[in-house]
Write a structure and sequence with these properties.
2 domains, two-stranded parallel sheet, about 160 residues, 6-stranded mixed beta barrel, alpha/beta, 3 helices, Barwin-like endoglucanases
Length: about 160
């Protein structure tokens, strides 16, 4: 991204407008490009950046068996027995708590993969996680996804106890 001090922006714009050798089309083109240049911020951010929402609501599905043993987006090998998920919204290697809104059952999973870009679902869970949430018979369910962070929460295993 181009950043310009406010004074530089005005000088360049004045030069364009005053120069007789610059055609109107060229002047308009340059001026429109400069209009999109962001002036450098003078306000300190103190490390505060806009954070993504802590909760997301949407539809959950679960992985097809055809992905068993395949490499995921973060490089791990997928297993239906692990408590993992795929999401296009949540960052890779992030732990999330997924709650089934129909029965209030929840599971903590690690996001290790991405879904197809055209997939509109919020999250795709391993069979072990879907079983813990109680929706393997239906295939889809409405969920709430809470972002827990990059570090594994205490007493959480990424492997299901229900094997």
């Amino acid at each position: 991204m181009v950043t310009l001090e406010q004074g530089h922006f005005r000088k360049i714009l004045n030069y364009i407008l005053m120069n007789k050798h610059v055609t109107i089309l060229t002047a308009c083109t340059i001026a429109s490009c400069l209009a999109f240049a962001q002036p450098k911020s003078t306000t300190p951010t103190h490390g505060h950046e806009k954070k993504s929402p802590k909760f997301h609501y949407g539809t959950a599905s679960f992985y097809s068996n055809k992905f068993e043993g395949k490499k995921t987006a973060n490089g791990e090998i997928f297993s239906q027995k692990n408590m993992t998920a795929a999401s296009n919204i949540v960052s890779l290697n992030t732990y999330v708590k997924v709650t089934n809104l129909h029965n209030k059952r929840s599971a903590i999973v690690k996001v290790t993969d991405r879904m197809h870009p055209k997939n509109k679902r919020l999250i795709d869970l391993s069979r072990a996680a879907a079983k813990q949430l109680g929706y393997t018979g239906r295939g889809l369910t409405k969920v709430k996804v809470e972002i827990l962070g990059k570090h594994r929460p205490p007493d959480v295993s990424t492997q299901s106890n229900q094997e």
